[in-house]
Design goal:
Elements lengths: L10 H13 L2 H8 L3 H15 L4 E4 L2 E4 L1 H31 L2 E6 L8 H11 L4 E4 L7 H6 L5 E4 L9 E15 L20 E5 L7 H7 L8 E5 L2 H9 L4 E5 H10 L3 E4 L6 E9 L4 H17 L8
Parallel strand pairs: 3-4, 3-5, 7-8, 7-9
Antiparallel strand pairs: 1-2, 5-11, 6-9, 6-10, 6-11
Length: about 300
C-alpha cells in the first residue's frame, strides 16, 4: 500500500476540485480562486502527481471526475464544510471578546444625530460594537440602573448622582411654532394668555413628562381647547402648517422646518423654557465608553449652539 503524506494535501487543492466540479470547468474555477487558468492547471497537475492518481479525465472540452476523483471530492466536501464551521466558531470567539456599548436616549427624535457619532466612533475603535437599545427610550435611567445600558442620553439627572458619571451635552430652548399666516405673528407683544382656547399638538407622552406643559402651559395657567398627541415630528408640523393648532418644540428640532418655510416661530414669553441633556454612565466607565461620550459632546457642540434661537 502506498502512503501519501498529508502535507501534500492543502485546502487550496480541495477547493480547486470542488470549484471545478461546481462550475463545470477550469475557467469557471478561476473566478472563485482569483488565479489564472494556467496557474490552476499547474496546481491540479502538481496535486495529481503528489497523490499519484488522476482526479479528472478530459472528455472533449470538459473535465470529468475519475473514480479516485469522486472519492477525493466526497472527503473534500466534508473537510471544507468542517473548516467553514471552524471559521465561524473563531469569528464568534472574536465577537464574544469584543466590547459592546449599549446606549439609548430619552427622546426618539434624538436618534437622527446618533448615526454620525456611531460612525466616527467605529472608525476610531472598529473592534467595539455599539448597541442602540430602542426599548429603553422611555426610561433610559431605569435601564442604566438595571445594568441594561452603559450610556443613557437623557434630559434628567439620576436620583443618586454620586453613583454615576454625568456629562453635560447641550441645552435646547423651546419655541412656539405657528402657521405662516397665524395672527399670533402680528401680536405685539405676544403674551401667554393669547393661547387660551388654542389646540396644542405635542408628542405622544404623559403631560407630566412634557416640557411644554411643565414649564409653560401650567405655570402660565393657559386653558387649552384641546391637546392632540402624535408620534412623528412631521405630523406635528403638518398640522400646525395647516393652521389646525400650534406646537411647542426645541429650536434644534424645529430648525429644518423653519428653514423650509413650512411654519413660523415665536419666542415663548416669560421665563426661558429649556431642558439640559446629559450623558449618564457608570463611574467605572471603560475608556471606550469615555471616548464615545467625548465624541458625542463634540458632535452636539458642532451641531447645536447651546441656547441659540434661529427664527
Amino acid at each position: 500500500m502506498k502512503f501519501i503524506h498529508m502535507k501534500n494535501v492543502e485546502l487550496k487543492h480541495l477547493r480547486l476540485i470542488k470549484h471545478i466540479v461546481d462550475g463545470g470547468s477550469m475557467s469557471n474555477a478561476t473566478h472563485k480562486m482569483f488565479l489564472t487558468q494556467s496557474a490552476l492547471s499547474h496546481m491540479l497537475r502538481e496535486f495529481e502527481e503528489n497523490l499519484g492518481v488522476k482526479i479528472f479525465a478530459r472528455r472533449g472540452k470538459k473535465l470529468h471526475l475519475t473514480d479516485q476523483g469522486n472519492t477525493i471530492l466526497f472527503h473534500a466536501e466534508k473537510v471544507l464544510s468542517e473548516f467553514s464551521e471552524l471559521e465561524k466558531a473563531v469569528a464568534n470567539f472574536k465577537d464574544a471578546k469584543a466590547e459592546r456599548i449599549k446606549i439609548s436616549t430619552a427622546c426618539y427624535t434624538s436618534y437622527h444625530w446618533l448615526p454620525a457619532v456611531v460612525k466616527l466612533f467605529r472608525e476610531k475603535t472598529p473592534e467595539v460594537m455599539i448597541d442602540i437599545v430602542i426599548e429603553a427610550t422611555q426610561k433610559p435611567l431605569s435601564y442604566l440602573e438595571n445594568g441594561k445600558l452603559d450610556i443613557a442620553i437623557t434630559d434628567s439627572k439620576p436620583l443618586v448622582p454620586s453613583r454615576y458619571r454625568t456629562d453635560f451635552l447641550f441645552e435646547d430652548v423651546f419655541l412656539l411654532l405657528v402657521a405662516k399666516n397665524s395672527p399670533y405673528l402680528r401680536s405685539e407683544p405676544f403674551t401667554a394668555g393669547l393661547l387660551n382656547g388654542e389646540v396644542l399638538f405635542i408628542y405622544e407622552m404623559q403631560e407630566d413628562m412634557s416640557t411644554a406643559f411643565t414649564q409653560f402651559i401650567r405655570p402660565n395657567g393657559i386653558e387649552l381647547a384641546a391637546v392632540t398627541k402624535m408620534q412623528l415630528t412631521e405630523g406635528l408640523i403638518e398640522m400646525v402648517a395647516a393652521g389646525l393648532g400650534v406646537t411647542i418644540m426645541p429650536c434644534w428640532m424645529a430648525s429644518p422646518y423653519l428653514k423650509q418655510g413650512k411654519v413660523k416661530a415665536i419666542k415663548l414669553p416669560g421665563a426661558r423654557v429649556s431642558r439640559k441633556w446629559y450623558a449618564v454612565s457608570h463611574k467605572d466607565a471603560t475608556k471606550e465608553q469615555e471616548l464615545f461620550i467625548d465624541l458625542l459632546q463634540r458632535e452636539l457642540k458642532h451641531n447645536f449652539n447651546s441656547g441659540e434661537i434661529v427664527i
